[in-house]
Amino acid sequence: MCMSHQDSIALKLSLIDSEKKRFPMAAIYSLYIINKSGGLIFYKDYGSAGRMDTNDSLRVASLWHSMHVISQQLSPTTGCSGIELLEADTFDLHCFQSLTGTKFFVVCEPGTQHMESLLKDIYELYTDYVLKNPFYEMEMPIRCELFDINLSQAVQKDRVAMLGR
């Protein structure tokens, strides 16, 4: 039996759809890195439906920094590190704060698991490729090609690992 090119494409698409149903791939919508004073030093959009312009991403980073600091101050428990997870109907926001006060947060599909480990991996990339870069000025926007390349690989690796979870 010989299959036409269109039939072959249709078969591949149906196989991809069935794989998505069996192994839904969690999508990371965006990644933000905020310095200790609340300035956005890195932003990466991973193809979310409603892409934000630069001003919107700055507003989100500023708002998150403010909410994070307020939550630390209002917490009844001592040593609270602030909000780590914000769950909404259409997205989840996972945050990791380093000891220096730099915040890393991802906006992802609701219910996405294991984002804490991805954020810690991103932090390690940040320390290896940004902080150890002799040309990087602290608290300034990140412009480091090696960081970008390794970050893309880490996010892609995490997406592939989602298939096995």
Notes on the protein architecture:
This protein is of the alpha+beta class and 165 residues long. The chain has helices at 5-22, 54-74, 115-131, 145-164, and strands at 28-34, 40-45, 85-87, 92-97, 103-108. A 5-stranded antiparallel sheet has the order 2-1-5-4-3. Helix 3 (115-131) packs antiparallel against helix 4 (145-164). The longest helix has 21 residues, at 54-74. The radius of gyration is 19 Å and the shape is globular.
Topology:
Layout: H1 5-22, E1 28-34, E2 40-45, H2 54-74, E3 85-87, E4 92-97, E5 103-108, H3 115-131, H4 145-164
Antiparallel strand pairs: 1-2, 1-5, 3-4, 4-5
Outline:
It contains 4 helices and 5 strands; from the N terminus they run H-E-E-H-E-E-E-H-H. With 165 residues, it is an alpha+beta fold.
Mind summarizing the main beta sheet? Answer: 5 strands, antiparallel
SS elements, strand count: 5
Helix content: 40-55%
CATH class: Alpha Beta
Shape: globular
In CATH terms, what is the architecture?
A: 2-Layer Sandwich
Mean pLDDT: 82
| Strand percent estimate | 15-25%
Rg over CA atoms, rounded to whole Å, is: 19 Å
So how many helices? 4
Alpha carbon gap, first and last residue: 37 Å
* SSE ordering: HEEHEEEHH
The CATH topology comes to: Beta-Lactamase
| Spatial strand arrangement across the major sheet | 2-1-5-4-3
Structural class: alpha+beta
- Contiguous low-pLDDT stretches (5 residues minimum) are 1-25
In the residues, how many domains can be counted? Answer: 1
Pfam families: Sybindin
Main location: endoplasmic reticulum
Family: Belongs to the TRAPP small subunits family. TRAPPC4 subfamily.
Protein name: Trafficking protein particle complex subunit
